[in-house]
């Protein structure tokens, strides 16, 4: 953030009214400075002061939104070069490339794969986010028809790729309610396409043949009053794209160079002759520092690893990944199914649930909130102790789901079994294996008994 909490406090009304949900204006200012509150929460700030604080405290890489509603994609908002310094804010948007030169069957097939590619991990929905539609045929009607088809068949965000301002205007105005990214303003057409972006309030991609040209066009668009820009350095090789991405981020963060203070768009689809190479380049762009990553195809075997890499890189390193505290039913559970319990560290959950699933023994897995700590760490911190486990079991509702009263605890927590039996006198506490890999054998023995 550009302003400290004290600097922000000096500009607040200092009424300590509490309408923002924080008792004092000073506390609210501190939250603003750390990104834990929004300016709009204070009803007494004038528009002039709001704009002043907003501009001064904005991150060096501007946050840009493409799309609307549930499928809106946030890009940028970055404040650090390396995630260990703080965290990366908004993950990249993996984007399907379509051309109006493709035949109908191919377009339909690619769109179907795009729509069907949805995964859930740690309660987070992972999916490709945008569809890039490029005018390559030279026929404005074909471009318009393809955009209409995509709008009808998916609610994803759009990237409209046409450097002919007139042709782009005809299509963009028809779907401006979807807030597409307009691609692209260059040194020759920036004024016409810049005015179009202002008119329909859509984000605009800026393209240069090199970084110097990119900065010049970006600066001119900023002078026109455009704020929501996405940068394309023009690089179409992996090496040059990587160098450009790093230079853009470093200039934005370290030198506060406004023309580069925006998220970027990269095209791995133009940098490789096969999907595997393209995927490797895309993974490089996830780490350094692509915003919109355009892929020639969306295939599960290539995009799923990219989505996982993105999720891991953009997870706050200072906060453990955790799953929701609740009962997870694995398989076709019934009243005789085993009941196991563990903590909510996401890695623990995925390993344990995976082994339970592979056992083919339908089971109830109780996940207790341990603030994302692993089992032994949570036990040592008092967050996975007998008394807290007992309270969770009693309130979870598991007693209504099973007729038996047998609870399997992790093998490393054998020392608390006696205490837990005192806390849960109606339950028999069973010691599970120390390693999750032994769960399939353990559960099969349970079902045999």
Please explain how this structure is put together.
This protein is an alpha/beta fold. It has 3 domains: 5-57, 3-methyladenine DNA Glycosylase II, Chain A, domain 3; 64-313, Alpha-Beta Barrel (TIM Barrel); 326-448, 3-Layer(aba) Sandwich (Rossmann fold). The chain has helices at 5-9, 25-33, 47-57, 104-116, 140-153, 165-174, 190-200, 211-223, 238-254, 275-287, 300-313, 346-359, 375-380, 386-396, 417-423, 439-448; strands spanning 64-66, 73-75, 93-99, 119-121, 124-126, 130-134, 157-161, 181-185, 204-207, 229-232, 265-266, 292-295, 326-330, 339-343, 363-368, 406-409, 428-431. The strands form 5 sheets. An 8-stranded parallel sheet has the order 10-9-8-7-6-3-12-11. Helix 6 packs parallel to helix 7 (190-200) and helix 10 packs parallel to helix 11 (300-313).
Write the topology of this structure.
Layout: H1 5-9, H2 25-33, H3 47-57, E1 64-66, E2 73-75, E3 93-99, H4 104-116, E4 119-121, E5 124-126, E6 130-134, H5 140-153, E7 157-161, H6 165-174, E8 181-185, H7 190-200, E9 204-207, H8 211-223, E10 229-232, H9 238-254, E11 265-266, H10 275-287, E12 292-295, H11 300-313, E13 326-330, E14 339-343, H12 346-359, E15 363-368, H13 375-380, H14 386-396, E16 406-409, H15 417-423, E17 428-431, H16 439-448
Parallel strand pairs: 3-6, 3-12, 6-7, 7-8, 8-9, 9-10, 11-12, 14-15, 16-17
Antiparallel strand pairs: 1-2, 4-5, 13-15
Helix pairs in contact: 6-7, 10-11, 12-16, 14-15
